[in-house]
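Supplementary Text 2. Reproducibility record for the structural model of the 245-residue chain.

All settings were left at their defaults, and a single model was retained for analysis rather than an ensemble. We include the record here because the model underlies the residue-level annotations in Supplementary Table 4.
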Amino acid sequence: MLGRQGFRYDQENTAVCYNSLGNIAQQNQDYKKSLEWYQKGLEKYKQVLPANHDLIADSYRSVGAMHARIGNTDEALQSLETALSILKTNHDEMHPLIAFCLHEIGNTYLQTKNIHDVSNIALEFLQKALKIKQQVLPENDRSIATTMLSIGSLYRALGQFDEALTFYERSLEVKLNSLPKSHPTIIVNYHILSTVCQEKGDYERASKYAELMTQSEFQSLTLKQPDCTGITIHSFDGLSQNSDT
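Retained model, structure tokens:
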């Protein structure tokens, strides 16, 4: 029979597996299935860990994020606020885990249909998240770029295109300092910038970003192509060896 420690170890491992399955489902954009796995992981953690453990807080954050993805705003906010409450008992307010949770709460408000009614709340959470990240994370951390992108999207939804472009461009700058230009997330940034410039009526800038997007896409495709030159040389090398024998 498993002892108490063995039981706890087994349950924690099961929770880790559930969370990994949730991550995979999320990457496949199957958010309902991801939510199911995250909820199972949370229940396992709650059986063996203290109620204020960081892993429980992180599980609540994952559950909340998936609720937000499928439009369950109230459930999302409830889970995320529970996560934030736990984290605040364990860490000071400048901890990165708190920043990640604040970002998710801001993003949840951003995804609501009545964004004009909750824009100030969303902006407050996102700005707090950004402030913490900029102070405790490396300056080119992609998480900083992600929050900048969300703030840009908030301003875009409000029709404040100049402010939106400022944050979209800042997000792009962070990514360009840490990722190759052919990276998919940079291509997405160029696409967003081009689209917002069109919405603003600045067609010259829109064209510039569209061209940069095309160049990045071309680089991405080039990197994925097989090395045909190498294959050809290898074939001739083989032919030469056969001729010599």
